[in-house]
Amino acid sequence: MDALPALVSHFLARFNQEYKKTVRGVDPVAARYLQEYAYPGNVRELESIIAHAVIMTEGEFIGSVDLPEYMRRGITTRPALVYQREEAILSLREMEEQHIRRTLEALKGNQSQAAKRLGISRSTLWRKMNEYQIEPSSEDVDDK
Questions:
Q1: In a 3-state reduction of DSSP, which class is residue 25?
Q2: Element holding 82 (H helix, E strand)
Q3: Rounded Cα–Cα distance for residues 132 and 139 (Å)
Q4: Please, what are the domains in the chain?
Q5: What does DSSP assign to residue 65?
Q6: How many other β-carbons are positioned within 10 Å of the β-carbon of residue 22?
Q7: Quick one: which of 109, 104, 114 has its CA closest to 141?
Q8: 140/77 Cα distance (integer angstroms)
Q9: Whole-model pTM?
Q10: Which residues pair with 61 in a beta bridge?
Q11: Is the pLDDT of residue 62 over 90?
């Protein structure tokens, strides 16, 4: 993907603003992972990866640890879901609950950002948190 550096810069600027971060760039190891990845979802795949990395990083530069695990393990495309046994298959309700919990955890309990990232309203997130008995984090930094 020839436009990779420009796209990464574009997405960094966008997600810095959206998540109120100050990520300045990508370190050389993470840049190599980004260059070598096949991007089966094309630009949307890159957008998702950069959003994930901006959320996860705690510094000014995205490192390899901030990238999705499948990239760090040298897998060139996102792995398909493979179920080893029937117990591993979750219901949609269970998957939704896990996704909400992980998103809130990644965003340190910030419900406004979590709702935005999940593509739902804050009131819908609140309702789902009640439904799944997810307690607001003590780290919740939302302006109330």
A1: strand
A2: none
A3: 19
A4: 4-72 (1.10.8.60), 86-131 (1.10.10.60)
A5: G
A6: 7
A7: 109
A8: 34
A9: 0.54
A10: 25
A11: yes
